[in-house]
Amino acid sequence: MSEPTPSRPGALVISLDFELHWGMRDHMDRSADSYADLAGSRQVTLDLAERFARRSIRATWATVGFLFASTRDELEVHRPGRRPAYLRPEFDPYVEPVGTDEVEDPQHLAGSLVDALAAVPGQEIASHTFSHFYCLEDGQTESDLQADLAAAQSIAGLHGLTLTSLVLPRNQWNPRYAHAVRASGFNCFRGPQPSASHRARSADEQSLAVRAARLVDTYTGVAPPPTFAWSDRLRPDGLCDVPASAFLRPYTPSRRRLDGLKRRRLVSGMRDAARRGRIFHLWWHPHNFARFPAENFAFLDTLFDEFDELASTYAMTSLSMRDVADAVTADQGPSMPSRSDTTP
Ligand SMILES: [Zn+2]
Questions:
Q1: pLDDT (tens digit, 9 = 90+) per residue, 267-298?
Q2: Residues less than 5 Å from ion ligand 1, measured at CB
Q3: Count: domains in the chain
Q4: Distance, CA 310 to ligand 1 centroid (Å)?
Q5: Ligand 1 centre from 260 Cα, in Å?
Q6: Ligand 1: distance of its center to the CA of 21 in Å?
Q7: Per the domain annotation, does 121 fall within a domain?
């Protein structure tokens, strides 16, 4: 049985969770080597955006609101009056000491980087909430989230930006909060990857078995990453859900011999999206590239080489999350070339 003709070409969507220390402060000590790496990851972040532009790749930078500030004073002005009261105190970001400016505290302030990223062609600045907010942890409420997202919009305004795409920290999408998300100016979010080991969970529900299952996912071709139909993206509440297909696991010397498998699995997802006119959504953190930048960029380039092939064969496109939301909302995405033009 042949599949219906897709209405749009396949798309490669890339989103980056840009968070520096805010995404890890509950489990990363400032004396750790990886904390020092975060300062180095600032340059890698700019290099990544530059590489995207050079390869004509559009991407979404889901940025923690704190990072839009260049100084502690700027941050103070935008802190929400209402804050989450997590039962687990390690989740409270408002106790974190912050230095006076980006030079003194490159792990917590990054206003200049936000401006630099926003100036790179094809890059969307989006939100990773103001405070790296955990929507499935005990002690927070929908009103807390709404106050948090209002702060995110307010500090983005400092840079002349309006945020329309949202990535929830730790992918803790809480369906009960959809209204708060929509009411805060967002029309797009990255839903959790739809497999048992990736469903949205609180920290308490995470287990070693779940983590092991994700690792096996990365390196085996047994379960190719999911791709998503255009027709199912727009929800009745007006939010566009662009779920994750795969996490781009960073280069690790001890797993170097498995890089071929890792690549084949990601490529199989991209090819599936290209051939069937679906969406393949890859995500990672810019700091994941900090430890082995040369190896990570080389790997990424091989994925972009594959994308270029798929773009010329199947008219696959590179889109940000906002591009996807715009396309499904206006129902005027790029049209699919006739099948006779796309014989592989
Ligand atoms: Zn995060």
A1: 999 999 999 999 999 999 999 999 999 999 99
A2: 17, 19, 23, 169
A3: 1
A4: 30
A5: 27
A6: 9
A7: yes
pLDDT in tens, 55-106: 999 999 999 999 999 999 999 999 999 999 999 999 999 999 999 999 999 9
CA of 60 from ligand 1 middle (Å) equals 14
- For ligand 1, the distance from its centroid to the CA atom of residue 284, given in whole angstroms, is 10
pTM, rounded to two decimals:
0.89
Specify the CATH number for the domain of residue 86.
Answer: 3.20.20.370
In a domain, 77, yes or no: yes
Range of the domain at 19: 11-206+230-255+281-295+318-331
Question: What is the 3-state secondary structure of the chain?
Answer: CCCCCCCCCCEEEEEEEECHHHHCCCCCCCCCHHHHHHHHHHHHHHHHHHHHHHCCCCEEEEECHHHHCCEHHHHHHHCCCCCCCCCCHHHCHHHCCCCCECCCCCCCCCHHHHHHHHCCCCEEEEECCCCCCCCCCCCCCHHHHHHHHHHHHHHHHCCCCCCCEECCHHHCCCHHHHHHHHHCCCCEECCCCCCHHHCCCCHHHCCHHHHHHHHHHHHCCCCCCCCEEHHHCECCCCCEECCCCEECCCCCHHHHHHHHHHHHHHHHHHHHHHHHCEEEEEEECHHHHCCCHHHHHHHHHHHHHHHHHHHHHHCCEEECHHHHHHHHHHCCCCCCCCHHHHCC
- 237 within a domain of the structure (yes/no): yes
- Is residue 174 one of the residues assigned to a domain? yes
Cα 2 to averaged position of ligand 1 atoms, centre (Å): 40
